[in-house]
Every structure is written in C-alpha cells, then in structure tokens.
Protein FAM3A
Amino acid sequence: MRLTGPVRAVVVLLLVGLTWLLANTFFGGEGISSVRQLLGGTKAEPTQSEQRPRKYKCGLSAPCPPKHLAFRLVSGAANVIGPKICLEDKILVSSVKNNVGRGLNIALVNGVTGELLETKTFDMWAGDVSDLLKFLRPLHEGTLVFVASFDDAATKMNDESRKLFEGLGSTAVKELAFRDSWVFVGAKGIENKSPFEQRMKNSKNSNKYEGWPESLEMDGCIPLRPPLEG
C-alpha cells in the first residue's frame, strides 16, 4: 500500500525526531550537528568553544618558546582604572591585588629564574623622586624591570631618574611628560635598547579621556638570562 502525501510527511517527521533523540543520546549536546551529518552528510559546524581562539599565558595569542617568560602590561586608564602587570599567568600588580598607585608601578623580576623580587609604586606627582632613585640605583645585573604608568608618571622625573631608565634600555623616558601613558620592560645591564616599550603622548587633540591619553597594552616573550659565571 502506497502512503499518501500527508501520511508520508508524518512518517518523515517521526523518523527525523527519532534520529534526533538517538543522536542526542549518543552524542550529547552535539545532537543537532550529528543529525545534520547523518541526514545530509554535511560537516558539523564548530562549537562555540572550538570557534574561540585559544589563549596562552597572560592572554597571549601564541605560546612563548622554551626559556622565555610570557608577560602582559597594561597602563592605567586616566586616574580611574589601575594598571596591571602579568608574568607567566600570574598577576603581579593590579587593583584587585591592591598594590597599584599613582605614578610608576614597578615589578622587579630575577632575569635568570623568573622569580618575582619586589613590587613598588612611586607617586610622580606629589612624591619624592629620591625614593625612586634609591630603588633603581642598586639593581643587580640581569634584573628585569616591568613598568606601567598610572595617571601621571613624569612630573617628578629628573635627569638622573631618566638616565637610570635609559640604562635599563628605555628610549621613550627622555620624552616622557605629564600624564603620558607608558609601559616598559627593561633589564639591568642590557646591551641594546629594549624592544618592549610604548608611550602615548598626552594631547588634548587626541586624548581618549578628558585630560588623559588612552591606556596602553603590551605583551610578549622575554628570554631568560643564562646564569652569571663565577
């Protein structure tokens, strides 16, 4: 006996429903994609988790090579949102850790082992620059220096403090001015200028916020230094 049109449609719908239930049972949440494959032979669409780009340490888009440290620096936004320093997927400095402050936010890291040595903030608007000088002068060879600005990082800068940062590999510090955004990674004893530095000039014509430029974000991979001989 031949099936009439309406009856045939009902049978097809029942078969599709049964197939969907079986697929959902065996394949879980991928039931709909599996039905499409079973019925039409089409390739299943990628799930949301498959479409999302994979992130690595500190949110990098690619992993760092062996014996390299993954980092991400974010300068403060105006005088509202504090800066952030991430190293090897660990937050060293952030508002959540309650260890940020107006001016320069600095983390010192052992360049051989990647171990955090110290974090400190220096108020460059109303603070004493001598505190910064006492902090930078005795750095040991190979120490990595991570810097993220917040609000104003330059008002209290003097010639010696700028030269100390230049000795760590900075090229932008000599131009650093009132309320500029600045992120920088340098090292004591570096032979060349650091490739890890960004500066955004405070300009009323281009500022993102009223009175402040936009926040800067920088990430990358820093090679660990071989142990010093002797």
Observations:
- The first strand starts at residue 68 and ends at 74.
- The chain has five helices and nine strands.
- The first helix runs from residue 5 to 27.
